[in-house]
Amino acid sequence: MSKNERTTHFRCPTIAVVGCGAAAREFCLPLLRRYPGSETAVVLVDHSQQQADSVGREFGFTQTCTDYRCLPFAVDAAVVMTPHNLHAEQATHFLRSGCHVFVEKPMAMSPPQSEELVASAASCGRILMVNNYRRLFPSYQRVRQVIQSGTLGKIDRVSIRDGTEFGWNSASSFYFRDPSVRGVLLDRGAHTIDVINWWLGKSPRVAKAEWDAHGGIDARMDVLLNYEQTEVSTRFGRFYRLANDYRIECEDGMIKGRLFDFSRLSITRHGVTETVVAGPARSHTDYAWQLLANFIDAVSGRAEPLFLAADVAPSIRVIDEAYQLATRFNMPWYDDDPNIAMLTRRHQPQHTSPSHRDGNDEGKDGSEGSAR
Ligand SMILES: NC(=O)c1ccc[n+]([C@@H]2O[C@H](COP(=O)([O-])OP(=O)(O)OC[C@H]3O[C@@H](n4cnc5c(N)ncnc54)[C@H](O)[C@@H]3O)[C@@H](O)[C@H]2O)c1
């Protein structure tokens, strides 16, 4: 399907798309372009006028500006696709202005930010959704069904490996320029930790976290999670391709799959293994478009949101807790480097209250190659 093909009869609500980089070009604008009237109903906002104009020409949108607080017309909704550390502030601005918001993952940088966002959406009576589109993968939905059915008995152990060489075509390269956006765990974990919470129907305590960073941007991180009796080991990386699979070992069987096989999984019950095709093989962008289309339908009163940012928020607490607890991998080649202590001090995290460690949030429920 071409990016300009029309597939809907519904007119487009007025929407501000804030941040016109890679995510907007891949997950948002090709879909918005399909709605009749979108040429003038959508305003592209980027602090780089050149970026907004060039993306506008590429997708056929004529309205652009550089400041999300000074839009050329009032909007019904905002799609926030800026770097991570701007999501909470920008999403809150739109919610408080009476707009519905679809925000990229991670929805916020910290638990207080995500809680405040969710509270703002509730108090303003607006829809707040987050682009955790991996929840729509048919294979992931089947995993959840099987787990929740309890037919495989108690879950003993889960392991997930999630990593590829960083190859995403970011317009601003913020992922590596700004240590405050953290690294691979916040980036990929925003999908994967959320999916594990959603599969298991609860939120864990972080037992151990190890990273390769000196307080700045992590490129490899291992996190061990305890979901009551179930131990979950996770591994994240952006240097090279990891195994990219999941394995869920249960009392009476096992569920296994490739992390980026959205369609198939294998289920072993009492020693017999079957390959299950849970749905058609589609591309990861199809799922992101499906979720954004659901947001537009929800804003227009034609559908209920498939899930809300409030459902995803517990994963931000888990990720933050892992960063707070992280210790360095054994990397003896740095031992006699005099700069390491200084770097570590410079990037020391601003510790938040440990009280969140006592919480037990109930959570519910995100490609290889280009998407991370
Ligand atoms: N859901 C997913 O699987 C997925 C995949 C990729 C990226 N993302 C998320 O999308 C977000 C954006 O990532 P990206 O790869 O598109 O980044 P990018 O660098 O390609 O684009 C960011 C854009 O935001 C603009 N910008 C920066 N500050 C701004 C401001 N104050 N106001 C307006 N515009 C501003 C930049 O000029 C740039 O054009 C990230 O949070 C990332 O996690 C999600």
Structure, explained:
The chain folds into 2 domains: 15-132, 3-Layer(aba) Sandwich (Rossmann fold), CATH 3.40.50; 134-281 and 314-358, Dihydrodipicolinate Reductase, domain 2 (2-Layer Sandwich), CATH 3.30.360.10. Mean pLDDT is 91; it is low at 1-6 and 351-372. It has 372 residues and is an alpha/beta fold. It has helices at 22-32, 38-41, 49-59, 87-96, 111-124, 138-149, 174-177, 184-200, 284-299, 309-325, 339-346, and strands at residues 15-18, 42-45, 63-65, 77-80, 100-103, 128-130, 155-163, 205-211, 220-227, 230-237, 245-250, 253-258, 264-269, 272-277, 327-328. The strands form 2 sheets. The chain has a 9-stranded mixed sheet. Strands 3-2-1-4-5-6 form a 6-stranded parallel sheet, with helices on both faces. The site of nicotinamide-adenine-dinucleotide has 28 residues, from helix 1.
